[in-house]
Amino acid sequence: MLEVAKSPEKQDNIQYVVDLLDDAKKFFYRIGDVGIEKKVSEMAEQISEPLYLVVAGEYNSGKSTFVNALCGKRILRDGPTPSTNKITLLTYGDDVSSDEVDDHQCRMTYPLEALKDLTIVDTPGTNSIIAEHQLITEGFIHRSEVVLFVTSADHPFTESERVFLQLLKGKWDRKLLFVLNKIDLKTEEEQNEIVSFIEKNFYRLFGFEPKVISMSSKDAFLARTSGDAELLQKSNIEKIEQFIFEKMDYETKMDLKILSPLKYLVNVFDGMNDVLTDKVSHCNSEIKSVEMFEKRLSNKKQDMTEYINKYKTETQSVFARLKEKVDSFLNYHVNIRAIITMKFAREKFDDKFKREVFGVANPRTELERIVNDALDYVDRNNEVLWDMAHDYIESEIALQRKPDDDSVVRKDRHFTNRGSDKHINIREYAKQFQELDGELEGAKVYRVVQSGFINFVILEGLAIGIVIGLSTFFIPNTLGIIVASILAGIGFSLLPLKRKKYRNEFMQRVDAISERFNNMLLFEFEKIIDRVLEDIGNRISSYRDTRWSEREEVNRQITDLKVLSERTKDLIRKSCSQ
Predict the structure, then answer these.
(1) pLDDT of residue 213
(2) Which of the listed CATH numbers 3.40.190.80, 3.40.50.300, 1.10.8.100, 3.90.930.1 matches domain 50-248?
(3) Rounded to two decimals, what is the model's pTM?
(4) Which UniProt keywords apply (predicted)?
């Protein structure tokens, strides 16, 4: 285990890092990022362990052979094909042992004194035909504190190595030692050319030249197992051992222990801040989009309401035509000449009224047509509105959600069709206008005519009787003549008066019916429109409310992240200044 820091400053810094990692772990747990939380937990557990020296590189670059050469014994499998399929953590132990940690890790012990404050980590090779090997290595690299990157002299600095180095150095900023292996295959001149090639290309990528040490792990292993001192010196492994076991003193290792997790956190926090900022931007965009859609709904409601008023004009025209036909009928048929003619023609008066007033363009039929037209209009527009909402949810919102988030995909439109209760209510309400029944109105007119005719006959009969009586007795009686004249005049005027009275009552009744019907029509249709728009509005606004809540939560996360990031950068500044 790593010794306690010798200086109070180092002690404080280590404790600060431990506390920071604990708070970072809680933060990532709170936001549901299980992957980062696991990595932070691993680094927190690792903080008290010996320094992790990770040996990385492409398969067949000689990584396992190099570790065997360090130990002087073949404790790891090596060969020309991918031989390491797990992360192997080599630590100090009195005996050689191996224990499985999980499916991707094993821990080995070996009695090498240098392993008391250093853990050598052998990794599966990158650019292997076995893709999982590279994923295992990349999934562990965040735990590295020093990386010994092995490249082969027969194919140095390949494209896959460049990609891996960008992850290693560019993303996680790990301390790196470049090892050019298999120099036994090249001349000294070729070695120098290869080293220059590596330095130039590395500088082009990262802006500085790496430390490159050439060696032959094959010769080093043979020398260690055979005791050949000359071959050992030629292999150049002692130069690498001097660097990792001697030049990296205790203070350097402590600095790496502190800085490695901090640099990891800075990188993660910066990336997370970009992600969260994008989320806020997406939320703002979605909220604005919802508000614009709600404005479209409001405009659509106004358009539909104004259009429904068109049907009010149509119903008023139906009632106006009805009054005109009644006026025409009364003027033409309800008079003495027409009544006497009809009486002698024996034609039923109420049938004539029903035929002429209600026979063509029956107002009840016309009103039913208007109601059906209005229902069709509302149905068509309701379907359009639900299609708009459906398309909006899918195109404007669902595309910005995760592909497996089924909650935002609406396959139903909840369209209010013609069989709804609202539609039935309107039709039933329209049928209540029984005052417009042709037979009833014909009977009423006939009663007016009949009573007027009877009164006319009686009064005219009295007037004629008076005149005949006076002439029989040859008694000129001015008063009698006057009375007879008055009775005759009343007889002639009663029918027009009754006709006028009926007309006025009918017109008032029609106007009242027209007003009630129009008010009903507008009220009921506005309720249907409001209900549909309210349902759609509620559905859409639920997304807006969700985005509001999400934005508030993300803003809280950004605030917490900023605090953690500032703590991390402050610890880096303190560590670098000491």
Answers:
(1) 92
(2) 3.40.50.300
(3) 0.64
(4) Membrane, Transmembrane, Transmembrane helix
